[in-house]
Each structure stands twice: as structure tokens, then as C-alpha cells.
Specification:
Elements: E1 2-7, H1 16-30, E2 34-40, E3 46-47, E4 50-55, E5 57-60, E6 63-69, H2 73-82, E7 86-90, H3 95-105, E8 110-113, H4 118-121, H5 131-142, E9 147-150, H6 153-161, E10 167-169, H7 186-192, E11 201-205, H8 218-223, E12 228-232, H9 238-244, E13 250-254, H10 258-267, E14 270-273, H11 282-289, E15 294-297, E16 312-315, H12 322-332, H13 337-348, H14 353-368
Parallel strand pairs: 1-2, 1-7, 2-4, 7-8, 8-9, 9-10, 11-12, 11-14, 12-13, 14-15, 15-16
Antiparallel strand pairs: 3-4, 5-6
Length: 377
């Protein structure tokens, strides 16, 4: 198959969506499919054998790391030359609209996938009043696709409940070869705790942005005697978070990748994830693959990954004391925490990128069967 992939974010940006797309492109290419990526220009022209058509863009005011790449005629020229069997648009918002347009204009089957819970993000940027409008826009775009993929059963219910049609779950995936317990090291603990490797170590990895609600980790940190917190990643909210955590045992570690990132996961005592807007929470799977127990909000796609008391702990997202109680309970386990680590790893081992990509190929083939799913009127 020849797949044109339109995405609002790609390399060199680092986030959960890019991680999924990187592995998807790599595995599709390995399986003898051909992929062409249309994305905001990041300076790359090729990735794992797939060509990249970069489109110049401008920084999004609310999130400067995100580039808004406006559709332009060169996209159509490149698309016609590539001659795809289908178009897959990821989080169609700006550039993705070009994919929707050309799918209709050139009569190419269209798939869309939903990864970022934009309506819920709005409230974190003071725009909650626009949530209803956002859902109507999403419905108008997504219902032009033959199939809409999402990342959890919770999101499948929510999208369907808001009128988005033909929704299916694209299973999660994690690199269990990179993220593994064996990468735990005292040297990494020493680094993340700033010279206190024997102290309880809390970890957060991901974007430092308002919708991640990282500020809610502060009372958790303060409730564990002598605990240290490491925040790995970067983003538009970093300056505010540095002020928020001033005076606490918090280390802003910056971006990590590869085995360095894997070692950070494996070396921590608990991965704390307070976000209530997750469609999936890929970092949770990475933490679990590394054998790091997780404490996360019982919200969105997270319950699909974390089974409370078995491979981590969930807390009521409406209870401000929930994360504190769950984290304290984890530290009180003592030797039993090793069982939690093993069960977290076992759960992650069930989900590899190869299986997730083969499932995606099956979705593609169903869409290419013209009688399978009619386009919306």
C-alpha cells in the first residue's frame, strides 16, 4: 500500500503522538508499504525510508513548540506524484485539512485518527466556553473519513457520543526493547535526585504544558518525607512550573531520549501522571515497560492501561487527595512493590508496535475495500 500521512506534528518535535508516528512509519516501511509524510517543516526529508514533505509554518501562540503549517498548492503536486492508495490524517486541524481536501478532490479513501483531546484542552487555556464549538468542528472534519481511529475505549465512547461516526480503537504500542527494567542505575538515580539516590524518587516524563496538570504533583511530593521529584521534558509551561515548584526538591532534567530516557523510567520509584485529558497516555506504557509503577488519574484512556492495584494505582481525578493517598499506598508496599513492577512490565509486554501496526494495516485494507464503509454524505 502507498499511504500519505498528514500530521500536525512530527520530528524533530518530541511527544507521544510523534513517538507513535515514528514507530508506525518505521514498521509500515518494514512491511513493504510506502509512506509519505506531510508535516510542518522540521528540516527532515526522509525517515526510515519514508519521504517527508515539510510545509513551512508559524508558531502557535498558545503553544510555541507547535507549528501551524498552512495548506499550499505544493502539497497537491507532491501528493499526485506520490499517487497514494489512501490518505491518513492525524489530528486534522490545519495542515490535516489539506489531506481531507485532496482525499475528496482526488477521490482517495480517507482515514482520520484522534490523539489529542482538544475540547478538554481548551479549559486549561481559558477557552472552555468554546468546547461545544470545537466538538462541532471535529465532527464536521472527522465524519468525512471512511474510518476514525482513536486510542482507547473511553475515547471511542466519547467521540461516538459527540456524533463522530465509524469509530474504532487503534491499539496502543510500546517499545519493550528500549524501555526495560535492566536500565535502572544508581548513577541515574543520583542525577535525578540531585545527589540523593537513597531518597524516594517521583518521576514525570512528558510535555510541560498546562493541560498536563503537573502542578498537581506538588502536594504529592510534599506528602512523602524526603522525596525528590524529577520532571523530564520541556514545554511552554516550564517557567510557570519552575516558579510553582520553587523551594521543593524538584529537578527539571530537560529532554532525554533513547536508553538515557529508558534509564530514567527504570530508575524511579513511581511515575506520577495527574493529567485528566489523556486519550492514551503513551508515557504510562513506557514507564510500565521499564518496570516503574504508575500513579495516574482514572480518566480518559488511562484505565485501558492501568489496572488499579495490579500494575499501578488509579485515583479519582476529582479528589485532590486521591493522588497523595495512592502514592503513599505505593510506598507503603515495601517488598510488595517488586510484584507491582513485574506486573507492570508484564502488561506492557502484551503491546508491541509490530502488532499495533499490523492492526492499522488491517484497518487500511478494510477502507480500501470500497464496500466496507461508505463515505459520510
Amino acid at each position: 500500500m502507498r499511504i500519505a500521512l498528514f500530521t500536525e506534528t512530527f520530528l524533530p518535535k518530541v511527544d507521544g503522538i510523534v513517538t507513535r508516528l515514528k514507530h508506525t512509519v518505521e514498521h509500515l516501511q518494514r512491511m513493504d508499504d510506502q509512506v509519505m509524510v506531510f508535516s510542518p517543516d522540521g528540516g527532515l526529508r526522509e525517515y526510515k525510508g519514508a519521504s517527508i514533505h515539510g510545509v513551512s509554518g508559524m508558531a502557535f501562540p498558545l503553544y510555541p513548540e507547535l507549528k501551524l503549517a498552512l495548506p499550499r498548492p505544493s502539497i497537491g503536486d507532491a501528493l499526485e506524484k506520490f499517487n497514494p492508495d489512501l490518505i491518513h490524517v492525524v489530528n486534522p486541524a490545519v495542515l490535516g485539512l489539506a489531506g481531507v481536501f485532496y482525499a475528496k478532490t482526488l477521490n482517495i479513501p480517507l482515514i482520520a485518527s484522534y490523539h489529542t483531546h482538544l475540547p478538554k484542552y481548551l479549559e486549561h487555556y481559558g477557552l472552555g466556553v468554546l468546547e461545544g464549538v470545537m466538538w462541532e468542528l471535529l465532527k464536521a472534519v472527522h465524519n468525512q473519513a471512511r474510518l476514525n481511529l482513536c486510542t482507547s475505549t473511553a475515547m471511542e465512547r466519547e467521540l461516538s457520543g459527540h456524533g463522530i461516526e465509524r469509530v474504532a480503537v487503534w491499539q496502543r504500542g510500546v517499545d519493550t526493547e528500549l524501555f526495560r527494567p535492566e536500565l535502572a542505575s544508581r548513577a541515574m538515580r543520583d542525577r535525578l535526585t540531585q545527589g540523593h539516590p537513597d531518597a524516594p524518587l517521583l518521576l514525570y516524563i512528558g510535555r510541560l504544558s498546562a493541560e498536563k496538570e503537573i502542578d498537581r504533583i506538588k502536594p504529592v511530593l510534599e506528602s512523602i518525607p524526603g522525596a525528590r521529584l524529577a520532571l523530564v521534558g520541556g514545554g511552554p509551561y516550564q517557567e510557570e512550573l519552575e516558579q510553582h515548584f520553587a523551594g521543593t526538591n524538584t529537578y527539571f532534567a530537560g529532554y532525554m531520549e533513547g536508553e538515557e530516557l529508558g534509564s530514567a523510567y527504570a530508575s524511579a520509584d513511581v511515575f506520577v501522571f495527574p493529567s485528566r485529558t489523556e486519550t492514551l497516555g503513551l508515557v504510562l506504557l513506557e514507564a510500565m515497560a521499564a518496570g516503574c509503577p504508575v500513579v495516574a488519574a482514572n480518566s480518559g484512556g488511562i484505565p485501558d492501561i492501568v489496572t488499579d492495584g495490579e500494575n499501578g494505582y488509579l485515583f479519582d481525578p476529582k479528589d485532590d487527595q486521591g493522588a497523595i493517598a495512592a502514592t503513599q499506598r505505593l510506598f507503603e508496599l515495601g517488598a510488595e512493590r517488586e510484584t507491582l513492577r513485574l506486573q507492570a512490565r508484564a502488561e506492557a509486554e502484551r503491546w508491541g508496535w509490530n502488532a499495533a501496526t499490523r492492526q492499522l494495516q488491517d484497518f487500511y485494507r478494510k477502507v480500501l475495500d470500497k464496500g466496507a464503509m461508505p463515505l459520510a454524505a
